[in-house]
Amino acid sequence: MKIEWLGHASFKLTESTGITIVTDPYEEDRVGVKFPKVKSSVVTVSHDHFDHNCVSAVEGVDTVINSTGSYDLDGVDIYGFKSYHDEKKGALRGKNIVFRFRMDGVEVCHLGDIGEPLSPMLAELIGSINILLIPVGGKYTINAEQAKEYVDLLMPDVVIPMHYMCDGYKTEFDELDDFLDLFSDKDIEYADTTELEFDRMDFDGERTRVIVPIKVN
């Protein structure tokens, strides 16, 4: 399977069968970062904020998943479950949907704009995963230290950070380095592309790799 970072909290997931899913497309004029031209029949939306719900920015959409539940799209399993956008059970910023995808036998979890600490119940819902797409920029989501706690408890094979400060943003977030500084240099990999490819045989369960895709505007 392939994972392409589109910017902010948006990714394009592609299975070998050709099925594609775009997560949390954003409104580029209000975010301040260009949203690339992308086509996908399926879009998932973690919550109804402009930097996560701009479905119109994606071409060819015929299915929008913006509610909790289990979905089977031609063999691709999607499971969405409720979480919170803040540490006060949604009283500050509302609810958030965490999505888990199974594509080509690879388990991927997109945390959306998670803002709550990792509870035992939430950890059980997320379960054992290969790839964790996690916000690290604080302010409106969990911060670097909280994100590291998620990683330490969930123990994914690969972590791809998202939702952190980038050039051009109109909203202030914490820097990516705040998160990376919490890991050993040997566990951090910098890609020279926004598109990463994975096979279920890539994962040995022995360590967690943090992969940073390079954003190309």
Question: How would you sum up this structure, described in words?
Answer:
The chain has 217 residues and is mainly β. Helix content is 12%, strand content 34%. The strands form 3 sheets. An 8-stranded mixed β-sheet has the order 8-9-10-11-12-13-16-14. A 6-stranded mixed β-sheet has the order 7-5-3-2-1-15, with no helix packed on it. A two-stranded parallel sheet has the order 4-6. Helix 3 links the parallel strand 12 and strand 13.
Give the tally of structural domains.
1
Largest sheet: 8 strands, mixed
Beta-strand portion reads 25-35%
Radius of gyration: 16 Å
Estimate the global geometry from the Cα principal axes: globular
Count of runs of 4 or more consecutive helical residues: 4
- Through-space gap between termini: 23 Å
**CATH fold name:** Metallo-beta-lactamase, Chain A
Backbone structural class: mainly beta
Order of helices and strands: EEEHEEEEEEEEHEHEHEEE
CATH architecture: 4-Layer Sandwich
Please, what is the average pLDDT? 91
CATH class: Alpha Beta
Q: In which order are the strands of the major sheet placed?
A: 8-9-10-11-12-13-16-14
Let me know the number of strands: 16
Percent of residues in helices: 10-25%
Features:
six-stranded mixed sheet; Metallo-beta-lactamase, Chain A; globular; single chain; about 220 residues; mainly beta
